[in-house]
Amino acid sequence: MGGPGSSPCASCKLLRRRCAKDCIFAPYFPPDDPHKFAIVHKVFGASNVSKMLQELLVHQRADAVNSLVFEANARVRDPVYGCVGAISYLQNQVSQLQMQLAVAQAEILCIQMQHEPTLQSHHQVLELDQDDKALLLHNNIDNCNNNNNNNLGYAMSSGQFNSNFASPSSIMQMQMQMQDPLKQESLWT
Amino acid sequence: MNPKRCAACRYLRRRCPKDCVFSPYFPPNNPEKFACVHRIYGAGNVSKMLQQLPVQTRAEVVESLCFEATCRIEDPVYGCVGIISLLQTQIQKTENLLARTQAEIAVAQTKHSQNQHSEFM
Fold it and tell me: Are residues B81 and B57 in the same domain?
């Protein structure tokens, strides 16, 4: 924090201003990491970041800053797609895994039917917990729809971008069926 | 006022020049698009970003900025990083389920071959 004798935070250093005692940036942009604020300022701008932080509760601000830094880094690395490139890549991974899972599920059904032709219902084949059932049901719904109807409809590798993708809220809703977001520490490193 | 101003110049209440950097990507019939991007990034930053990139990539830049800005408005704490986190979780769960299913296949195949072997004995 600012004040007589104390070092200004990275933001106030970059902005060349006095670091007030109640500086909104100081808790999240320590003076020993100037790059962190520099990159956020470059992409979002100091005043926008300040506004965003002011609209949040204090206990939410650290995570907000970390996510802004993550997004800013992604945008600097990939000026065209930013984080959206990563989302597209992960969506493709999810699709591929779902296809592999569907193949494996079909295979085990075949094997079980060969061994026990009198098997009544397919849900006796795998012992699944509630979460896995939800995932399977969800995967089947996804596979029934056009692969990219509810997903980001573009492939990173080809560099094409289909702007007809679902809104972020519908994507979030779809994903929220799984569980609450897991805020992994590894995201921030 | 010129009724043919782009959404950005309308929002910023300024004249829309012929070479306006925003006008190809922010048509006047969609004012929310620019409002959303302006709220998170600011007009100056968006303009700088567009000017630093080749013209053929700018449409995609604008779409990705809009998407990220919309994510940030809907989730002010995590933005689109929340979506990344959820996708990573989904990948992990699907991988685990796939591994379990493949293990089940291996067990079932082993059982089947053992049964076949004992039938011949």
Answer: no
